[in-house]
Design a protein that fits this description.
globular, 46% helix, 2 strands, UPRTase/APRTase, glycosyltransferase, single chain, mainly alpha, adenine phosphoribosyltransferase activity, transferase
């Protein structure tokens, strides 16, 4: 894992083995979402991966972002 962006993102994801039941590895991304640099890096990594794997043929990435009063357009704002 030599990519600095990937390392930044990985450091912000917490793992909880055997939660909620034995054999499940729960990964908490809330620290990643709270840190603007990590969040920006995760969006950049995702966008770059999709562009690379689909030959640059992606114009938009759409999805439902559950808004609890803030951050509804955060990924869109970061990719501008």
């Amino acid at each position: 894992m030599a990519d600095p962006e990937l390392q930044l993102v990985a450091r912000r994801i917490r793992a909880f083995p055997d939660f909620p039941i034995p054999g499940v590895l729960f990964r908490d991304i809330s620290p990643l979402l709270k840190d603007p640099d990590s969040f920006r890096a995760s969006i950049n990594l995702l966008a770059n991966h999709l562009k690379k794997t689909h030959g640059g043929k992606i114009d938009y990435i759409a999805g439902k972002w559950r808004d609890r009063g803030k951050g509804a357009l955060a990924p869109q704002d970061l990719q501008g």
